[in-house]
């Protein structure tokens, strides 16, 4: 594999690795290249992103490389996260929240296995809304982040504790995720609150 192709493949691996990122060792195993070479290429990519003033950066955290955003752009991301048009929970976010609430602590990969689709965006949205947070790292390859619900989640859904989540009732053929999502949605409807209301309550 030539240098240009290797660089392109590694950039793609960073993208699909999401929040957990990828270590030079793991990336080297995937591309079947010496780990020192892969580490050098990742650092070159890191310099390229910074030098060209790209909106995306490559951060090295706890031995893993991951895509992140330029810190100086944070005010714009905050404005987007809290804009009125994005204040309600999408179906994807609600499904992801239901999985985390009932299965916590849980990794992004485990969430995606249950939903069958990528979960990066819903997780990012829920973290921004302070409904979920990092609860540590799983004892697995790459030490993936474990997610769980926050105190704000309990406040939002009017729960004294996580043990007070409504228990799903399954009939034959019922889908577990659909049932749990419906229970959380019913909670929202019952309180007639939007995430904009939550933001005001938490101020």
Automatic annotation (TrEMBL):
GO terms for biological process: cell division; chromosome separation; DNA replication. It is found in: Cytoplasm. One of its GO terms (cellular component) is cytoplasm. Gene3D superfamilies: Winged helix-like DNA-binding domain superfamily/Winged helix DNA-binding domain. Keywords: Cell cycle, Cell division, Chromosome partition, Cytoplasm. InterPro entries: ScpB_csome_segregation (IPR005234), WH-like_DNA-bd_sf (IPR036388), WH_DNA-bd_sf (IPR036390). It holds the Pfam family SMC_ScpB. Participates in chromosomal partition during cell division. May act via the formation of a condensin-like complex containing Smc and ScpA that pull DNA away from mid-cell into both cell halves. Belongs to the ScpB family. Homodimer. Homodimerization may be required to stabilize the binding of ScpA to the Smc head domains. Component of a cohesin-like complex composed of ScpA, ScpB and the Smc homodimer, in which ScpA and ScpB bind to the head domain of Smc. The presence of the three proteins is required for the association of the complex with DNA. This is Segregation and condensation protein B.
